[in-house]
Design brief:
By secondary structure, the protein is an all-alpha fold. The protein has 18 helices and 2 strands. It has a two-stranded antiparallel sheet. 49% of the residues are buried. This is MFS transporter.
């Protein structure tokens, strides 16, 4: 979102900054301050550093505290499903049962998460996140107990479905960044890039940590550790009250952000993007067959993490359609590598490069979600985006798995590229309705 234009007939006087020996406009130390007289083409509402560096991003009061506080809890996003699969498959001897149980939990989370986020918008993040996390931890412990006692299969589904109340701490962190830098689009872009890099890092380290704990200690160790980290991280995050967005309690029931102009079309793009991730994971694990599959997927996440950090330092992010063009093109590399060489190292290199388009796409998409969501409903808006991604991941995993069974993993590698092309098509389709791409945002509430 470009900076607002100054009113006509404004002039400027020079303000020397000790940080800038050269006279000239700099966001980190503005050399031009609006007065009256001459027009200007740049007068940002609030100064921000050139390129919005990560160092300057964390100069905001409380930014470091809430970021460090929620890291333990967010690490569990990549731990619980892997731990559950290892634990259930080891006890019941059925990967089909393990997969069905985790899929049930994923579906339940997609249904419950928007309501949890709406409560967080209305009553505050801390007041909702802590009890919601406590319920989710009880669900994880119930699953562990059922597996340990070899309870009937239906109890596993019921216990794991109870974990659906797990709050979306990544979305809550993004809502805090959006409030801290509500007048600085460049800083919001950098913050979204950082949060995407954190997501990728957690999905790199989480499965590795879960698999190690379950193998080195006992099958239930991954779930126990994940529950402890989730509860501890949420308590620490909720304690950071200074950066928490204020609760908004409208006199009348406010409509869901799903009704904001442009939001439904954007969420369909997220749905197709999620299918890229879900199908890529299943097909890669089927092709690699063994521990190497986790390493190869970690390389893809590493490429995305690095690209996200670099993208965040750019002065301005690109458009979503351009990012999807890059993703579609780069997702063609894995099937080409498999068809041309059949070599796992070559495939790993192709996935490392293909991951470079993932984070920029997600950063740009999440930034657009923030623009489309009313200011008092940021938690719900961000969670709706995550819900769409989860739905796409589930659909992509199911579709990729079916193609692996019928056509083989080499041919099934066309699925991620096809899903990326679908996301690009949906994005282009939304461009034909320019009036619906931006939602009017109400003024920020007092203190918000």
């Amino acid at each position: 979102m470009p900076s607002p234009e100054p009113p006509p007939h404004t002039s400027f006087h020079l303000a020397l900054s000790p940080e800038s020996p050269v006279l000239g406009p700099r966001r980190s130390s503005p050399a031009l301050i609006p007065r009256t007289g001459l027009p200007s083409h740049r007068a940002p509402r609030s100064p921000s550093p050139r390129g919005s560096s990560y160092r300057r991003l964390f100069d905001a009061p409380g930014a470091r505290a809430f970021t460090l506080a929620n890291l333990p809890a967010r690490l569990t996003a990549g731990m619980f499903s892997v731990s559950a699969v290892i634990m259930i498959a080891g006890a019941y001897g059925s990967y089909a049962l393990a997969g069905a149980v985790t899929a049930t939990g994923l579906t339940a989370t997609a249904l419950v998460a928007p309501f949890t986020a709406r409560l967080a918008d209305r009553h505050g993040q801390g007041r909702v996140a802590v009890p919601a996390t406590a319920l989710a931890v009880l669900g994880s412990l119930a699953l562990l107990l059922c597996v340990h006692l070899r309870a009937p299969a239906w109890t596993l589904f019921a216990a794991y479905a109870a974990t659906a109340t797990t709050p979306n701490l990544g979305g809550m962190a993004r809502a805090r960044w959006a409030r801290l830098h509500r007048d600085d689009p460049a800083a919001r872009h950098t913050a979204n890039a950082f949060e995407q890099a954190v997501d990728e890092l957690c999905f790199m380290l989480g499965p590795v940590a879960a698999a190690f704990l379950c193998a080195a200690l006992f099958p239930e160790a991954g779930t126990l550790t994940g529950a402890a980290l989730l509860l501890t991280g949420t308590l620490l995050f909720a304690a950071q009250r200074t950066t928490e967005p204020p609760a908004t309690r409208p006199a009348t029931r406010s409509p869901t952000p799903l009704r904001s102009p442009g939001m439904p079309a954007h969420l369909t793009v997220f749905l197709a993007t999620g299918a890229v991730f879900g199908s890529l994971e299943v097909v890669t694990l089927a092709y690699a067959e063994g521990p190497a599959g986790g390493v190869v997927l970690a390389l893809q996440a590493a490429g995305s993490c690095l690209a996200g950090l670099v993208y965040g330092r750019s002065r301005r992010g690109g458009g979503l359609t351009g990012c999807l063009v890059a993703m579609t093109a780069l997702m063609c590399l894995p099937p080409l590598a498999v068809a041309a060489t059949g070599s796992l190292p070559v495939l790993a290199a192709a996935l490392l490069v293909a991951g470079a388009a993932t984070a920029p796409t997600m950063v740009t998409g999440m930034t657009l979600v923030q623009k489309l969501t009313p200011s008092g409903q940021l938690n719900e808006g961000m969670t709706l985006a995550v819900t769409a991604l989860l739905g796409g991941i589930a659909a992509g995993a199911a579709g990729g798995g079916r193609l692996v069974e019928h056509l083989g993993p080499a041919t099934a590698y066309a699925t991620p590229a096809g899903a990326a092309a679908l996301a690009l098509f949906l994005s282009l389709l939304s461009l034909r309705r320019p009036a619906s791409r931006r939602a009017p945002r109400p003024p920020h509430p007092p203190g918000g």
